[in-house]
What does this fold into?
Amino acid sequence: VQLVESGGGLVQTGGSLTLSCAASGSIFSTYYMGWYRQAPGKQRELVAAITRGGESTNYADPVKGRFTISRDNAKNMMYLQMNSLKDEDTAVYYCNARWLAINHWGKGTLVTVSS
It folds into this structure.
């Protein structure tokens, strides 16, 4: 599966942004999906994940209550709605598709939060 992220950019502290991940090349609904991020000088970390049918989600503690992950299997799309953004949310955000032990990654989209 090929993954392409979009929607990143510069946003003010406290603002909102929605990231999108477009998938192609395989059966999207087969994959567990997730958003990861990597800040400068830090390791890549899981932000949020969603099951194949979208019935269950989980979030990293720093984003709980602020971010919402969703997917539309009919459109082969995944989204991350980010609200109340903080400076520490600045990172490159990556789309991930996982099936068994196989992981696919997008190239990432940069989110910069600045006051």
In short: The radius of gyration is 13 Å. The CA atoms of residues 75 and 108 lie 20 Å apart. The chain is about 0% helix and 55% strand. The mean pLDDT is 96.
